[in-house]
Amino acid sequence: MIARLLDLRSDQLQLHHVRLAFSDDIGDVGRFAFRKLWILFTTILRVWWARIRHGTPVLYYPPSGPAKVPVLRDIVFLLATRWMFRRTAFHFHAGGVSAFAAQLPAPLRPLFRLAYRRPDLAIRTAPQNPDDGAAFGARRNVVVPNGVEDMRGTVPEATAAPGEPLNILFTGVMTEGKGVFVALEAFRSALQEGLDARMDMMGKWSSDAFRERCEAFVRHHGLEGRVRFIGVLSGPEKFARFAACDIFCFPSFYDAETFGLVLLEAMQFAKPVVSTHWRGIPSVVADGRSGFLVPIKDPRAVADRLLALRDPALRRAMGQEGRRIFEQEFTLQAFHRNMERELTALFR
After folding, report:
1. Which of 94, 103, 142 is nearest to 121 (CA)?
2. Deepest in the core among 33, 128, 214, 276, taking most CB within 10 A?
């Protein structure tokens, strides 16, 4: 979403980007490494230089999620940079950091409060997310939904013909919190109750141990011909998977989940969604209209919804409603328009 924000072309705003390249990939996120100290130091210097060179009055920053190493990094970064800027905008792409102070050693808690105190603008992606802005005393606290570029029409679309197996897709970080194991258990149960389907799971494994656990589950239950772990795909290859699926399954309960961009990527191709009542997901998926939402960590409920979506008329109706919602609320143009409005308000 930062990259998409930088694509904004505005007569009212000029954006100067200093990349926060602390982690090489998802497996590196939240882990301490000495090289990250050097990256933090050089990033602070580059922010100082950008402030001096461009005279930028606003610091726009996406705070971390509730994890120790990223929070400590944020504290150092914000204490070293906020004083140079007249205004600060926090964009909470991850949620729940405001509650993390209690997990820090007592001497660090005043520094935590000082680093995050009273931003001029706090943005969260959905009203259901933790209200970190209010907890930090933000002067203005708003909700701006994410949006993605409409890729429909760029890749061929397909649906299962009568008598063919349904194609179920999961996309996300391959970690327990994203609902990977819940999806596997639900899929096994649905197959036992008559669902004719295959499931592709697309994404990077969070750890070798979790990969081995999931692969062992597939072997133990004889699902080798039904479940495929297809790794990380990008660009047209990724969107072709969305366009060719019949159902998108995303039973997330991830700690830092705030929105679920993959839901938009499925809805833009008019695919029905099975997901969870978790954080900002209900702001994206209309339960019973564009898909189904179930309680978290409930494979039985997920299986029931997959079985309900055997009905091709229901899949088609929910997919069309998801496409309508996407066009109305979650396009990249809407995101740019809303972000431009909120950021320009900082100068009034």
Report:
1. 142
2. 276
Q: The tokens of 343 are what?
A: 């950021």
Q: pLDDT by residue (tens digit) across 306-326?
A: 999 999 999 999 999 999 999
Predicted local distance difference test score (pLDDT) of residue 251: 98
Q: In terms of domains, do 206 and 131 share one? A: no
Judge residue 259's burial from the number of C-beta atoms within 10 Å of its C-beta, 0-12 exposed, 13-18 middle, 19 or more buried. Answer: buried
Which residues contact residue 234 at a Cβ distance below 8 angstroms, ignoring those fewer than 6 apart?
Answer: none
Same structural domain for residues 318 and 174?
Answer: yes
Reported residue count of the chain is 348
315 lies in the same domain as 180: yes
Band (pLDDT 50/70/90 cuts) for residue 20 is confident
191 and 264 Cβ atoms separated by less than 8 Å: no
Q: What is the pTM of this model?
A: 0.90
- Cα-to-chain-centroid distance, residue 105: 29
**Residue with the two structure tokens 């009212």:** 12
- Of 95, 149, 69, 118, nearest to 280 by C-alpha is 95
H helices then E strands: how many in the chain? 12, 10
Q: Are residues 314 and 340 in the same domain?
A: no
> Which residue stretches of 18-131 are H helix?
34-54, 68-81, 109-116
- H or E element: which one contains 240? helix 235-244
Q: Rg for the chain (alpha carbons), in Å? A: 21
Burial of 136 (0-12, 13-18, 19+ CB in 10 A): buried
In what side-by-side order are the strands of the sheet with 291-294? Answer: 227-231, 197-202, 166-171, 247-249, 273-276, 291-294
